[in-house]
Design goal:
Blueprint lengths: L3 H5 L1 H8 L1 H7 L4 H11 L4 E6 L5 H9 L3 E7 L2 H10 L6 E5 L10 E7 L8 H10 L1 E12 L6 H11 L18 H11 L1 E16 L3 H9 L4 H7 L3 H17 L1 E2 L2 E15 L1
Parallel strand pairs: 1-2, 1-4, 2-3, 4-5
Antiparallel strand pairs: 5-8, 6-8, 7-8
The structure holds S-adenosylmethionine.
Amino acid sequence: MTLAYDWAGRVGDTWADQWRRTDLSFANLSPHLNAAILDAAPETGTAVDIGCGAGGTAIALAAARPALTVLGIDLSRNLVETARERGAAYPNLRFEVGDASELGGITADLLFSRHGVMFFDDPIAAFARLRCAVAADAHLVFSCFRDVTLNAWAIETGAAVTGTAPQKPGTSPGPFAFADADHVHSILQASGWAGDEQPIDYSYRAGEGEQAVDEALAFFSRIGPAAARLRELDGAAQEAGRERLRGVLVAHLRNDAVDFPASAWIWSCRPA
Ligand SMILES: C[S@@+](CC[C@H](N)C(=O)[O-])C[C@H]1O[C@@H](n2cnc3c(N)ncnc32)[C@H](O)[C@@H]1O
């Protein structure tokens, strides 16, 4: 479970520190998501990135739609600082620290998110609030992970550390909270939205280059299920867990890249 408190603190700080590696992990999903966002994006008006993180998706939209005002919102001060530095060249782009579940005082034409909408304590209330912050003909486009069993990057790396597979996540706030499409349909319906989901299988790139395995090891030691399990160990047990993790990464090394099977939904929604 990852709560607002975690994102505003330690977890957000870690993502800010690791933004190049998190962007790399999404590199083979982003072209699909960015195309869906562009399909829905007007030439002018206002678009809001929910849980913008280090800003990669908002920057891509601001670059493609120079007359559209793009606002990124995130709970993490350090991620917003990183996003501001990365996006400084785009006059139509700004980033703010804030809780997107309390978005107000705005009438957006587009809401979008790369994996930033699965962490609301009360998703129906949050999506209802977002519904109140958009125009009647607005779009909402977001990505989220599909079932954990379709995401070997999570299962295999988590299992490597302790030898036991991670428990199947439920719908508590976290990376797999929106894995069940029926659950998401029910949230959308209860909050005034209607949407369709598209499954996208992609390669989750954990590391690349001559040091690809070391890169991937550094990444998974800080972010994801393996990192959570490593934090619970110390001394020799932690070192042994890290070595087993390295073994899994080596097994996924091809042509200077460590890639894992991954699968996400891309949701395209409209006010109901
Ligand atoms: C998995 S990360 C994705 C970050 C970014 N969209 C990306 O693709 O790199 C989830 C992000 O959602 C943000 N987040 C979670 N709950 C939020 C909320 N209620 N309001 C604003 N941001 C939130 C987190 O701080 C984090 O940056």
